[in-house]
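Bumping with the actual sequence this time:
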Amino acid sequence: MILVLRALGVGDLVTAVPALRGLRAGLPGRELVLAAPDWLAPLAELTGAVDRVLPTTGPDRIAWTGPPPEVAVNLHGRGPQSHRALAAVRPGRLLAHRNPDAGHPDGPAWDDDEHEVCRWCRLLHAYGLPADPGVLALRRPAAGGVPAGLTLLHPGSKIPAKRWPARRFAGLARELTARGHRVAVTGSAGERALAERVARDGGLPPEAVLAGPTGLAELAALVAGARLVVSGDTGEPHLATGYGTASVVLFGPVPAAHWGPPADRPRHRALGAIEPTHVNPESTGSRGVGSHPTVNANGFDEEVAAVADVERVSGAVAA
């Protein structure tokens, strides 16, 4: 049995898909258990690599009660906490980045300026397990009555510094509607007020607000069948990459070089910070609230041009 720790969010899980697929191929015939939040179980199934989810909200909360796993894999972080948590389940082998402070002197060194997808593939390569960073495709979920052909705007983020201003999303909603897009606004339950403001100011009807009641499986189906996704640096554009749905992603302060879509896929466009800026992603604007200046630097006209460009490349048409 293989125990993999990745107790994070949607984008984190999707960026780990190539590594999960590498583990599945390199260690066949074993059950692969993913220690992750239980609400991610629908997405874990769509990776095509996970057998079951062990509900886990953080590296200090691995409720492992079975026999020691043959292999434990740290796809969560550099340690030491996550290393120690996995070592505590007494695996036959621990695959993790080098961290002598955690009692783990082998494995590759951590690289701060590495793309998240490549980071975990390189970890497996160091242990003789090939993993292809280009294998990002997700299984398509059952549509389940979810509308297809929508253009999805996602203005929220759990980190306010990553949010492009709501008024610009509203302007984009008006512009795209005028160009024939059927626009909807997505988000979490906590982002519903933001989504309603974007829809109202963007001239969209109330039913265009999908934030809140949409579960993860439904969101995956929406993205899989969407015409276009426009979002800040959060989980939804990673789903778009996994489904080959055209997307435009607004970055800052965390650079696209760390979390952006693959540069060789013209259906996906990253705007904003490209090179590492070493800005604390928890930081906000100059007054401590709202969007970070690196996000605000993404202009409205540039965003509209990027949408037109990915649509031209992908050949997308209005549904």
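The tokens above came from a reply further down the thread. The CA atoms of residues 176 and 248 lie 13 Å apart.
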